[in-house]
Amino acid sequence: MTGFISHHLFSSILAVGGTIILFQLFARLQQRLRLIWLQPMLMTILALIAIMLWQGISFEQYFSNAWLLNALLEPAVVALGFPLYQHLGTIIKQWKAILLVLCIGAFTAIISSFLLTIAIIADHSIAVALALKSVTTPIALAIAGQLDGNTAITAFAIILAGIFGAIIGPPWLKFLNVNSAKVQGLAIGAASHAIGTATVSNISYQHAAYSSLALIVSAVITALTSPFIINFLSSLLLAV
């Protein structure tokens, strides 16, 4: 029994420590080389996949050993509320405009993703999965399950949306001459949820505040409206 506990403890330390070391190495490398595509989270995931395939480690084994990292996600998300609190006064003054913008963004993401997927692939379960790609994983998976969406593709699409938003989002917005920290934060938070928010939080507290706000509000809007929107679009397509 003692040997089993010692082995599990060693495996946990190795999994958690190795993941953190890989992330820090890629973060330092990106900071030094300044390459957009060298996103630490993306590169860490790819490196872990390669190592797990090489060593024959299943995802279940890795997940059971790296449980501490998953447990730290909740306090990390709560910590994002601090910069939001710092800018609460300004946000309250602009709440109508912010809510309108985020509603338009959420509706556009759901409708365009669903219709484009139906037009190209003609698969309802995949269309539902991709329509929910821009919200946090727990909410998206719950809604996808209710609407007969493919939950595996939903999870994969959420990761891709977060990573690509984190990599391409800030430079793309600058290219479009969108330089306001508030607007950049809202755009990244609405499109790329927690991963994008974590990335732009490194730019400024204002980015973190507005991105956190967009992440939360967009998730609520999507949770409340996406079942009605997707069911309406499905019935409309069946009628056509």
From TrEMBL:
Coiled coil: none annotated. Its main location: membrane. It is found in: Membrane. It is a multi-pass membrane protein. InterPro entries: CidB/LrgB (IPR007300). GO terms for cellular component: membrane. Keywords: Membrane, Transmembrane, Transmembrane helix. The chain crosses the membrane at residues 6-23, 35-54, 66-85, 97-120, 126-145, 152-173, 185-205, 212-239. Pfam families: LrgB (PF04172). It comes from the Bacteria. PANTHER family: PLASTIDAL GLYCOLATE_GLYCERATE TRANSLOCATOR 1, CHLOROPLASTIC, PUTATIVE SEROTONIN TRANSPORTER. This is TIGR00659 family protein. It comes from Colwellia chukchiensis.
